[in-house]
Amino acid sequence: MRLQFGELNITPRVEERLEELGYTVAELADAIAEHKSGCDGEPSVYVGTYSKYNDGSLCGLWIDLSSFNSYDDFIDFCKAIHADEEDPELMAQDYEGFPRQWYNEGFMSEDDFDHILEYSDMCDKHGQEAVDDYLEFRDELDNFEEAYCGEWDSEEDFARHIVDECYDLERTMGDLSRYFDYEAFGRELFMYDYSMGANNHVFRVI
């Protein structure tokens, strides 16, 4: 059975291992077609094994993590494509489509898998640049939607928005409102209460 590089040689023992993992040979072929990554931006890892790597083989498959509903299903699939080994020690040999902090050559934990799927969902909803900006300052995405304030051209531009939303300068200051220092106010806001990422997305500090 053809993988990305190399093949899974189907023998009676391999068929037995596949059955233990919940696959027939035909079902595994279908699963490979379903889970194989196109490497077009989806969160993906290239999965080989340490045994094959130590023997000079890169036999394995680029896998689209977002095509799985659970970590256990992902692990079972990875073991199935390497069912020519009795107990494959999985190796994530490369990755793309998610932050480096959740990549581990020694293979990912369930927590990292869940973080990656959450990252993918957030990118679909809010755009990758916004999510990456948030992760400049934080390690997890738990409060992203509560903290997100949108995209602004500059700190001063955001300061003008806050003033327009929260204050009536003309009523309180009259003609002096034209001299209000938005740049200084912006510096004050972003000193403690807000942060702006490299792509100009703003987040409230929670």
What key phrases describe this protein's structure?
6 strands, single chain, 2 domains, three-stranded antiparallel sheet, Arc Repressor Mutant, subunit A, alpha+beta, 206 residues, 10 helices, 14% strand
Report on the structure:
The chain is α+β, with helices and mostly antiparallel strands and 206 residues long. The chain is 45% helix and 14% strand. It is built from ten helices and six strands. Strands 2-1-3 form a three-stranded antiparallel β-sheet. Strands 4-6-5 form a three-stranded antiparallel β-sheet. A hairpin with a 4-residue loop joins strand 5 and strand 6. Helix 5 crosses helix 6. The chain is elongated. The mean pLDDT is 91.
Summarize the structure.
With 206 residues, the chain is an alpha+beta fold.
| Anisotropy-based shape | elongated
Order of helices and strands: HHEHEHEHHHEHHHEE
Provide mean pLDDT, rounded. 91
Share of residues in strands: 5-15%
Number of domains: 2
What are the segments in which pLDDT stays under 50 over at least 5 consecutive residues? Answer: none
Looking at how many chains there are and whether they match, the oligomeric state comes to: single chain
Strand order of the largest sheet: 2-1-3
Q: Number of DSSP strands? A: 6
What is the distance, rounded to the nearest whole angstrom, between the alpha carbons of the first and last residues?
51 Å
Q: Helix proportion of residues, in percent?
A: 40-55%
The total of helices stands at 10
The gyration radius over C-alpha positions equals 24 Å
Structural class, by secondary structure, is alpha+beta
Note the main sheet.
Answer: 3 strands, antiparallel
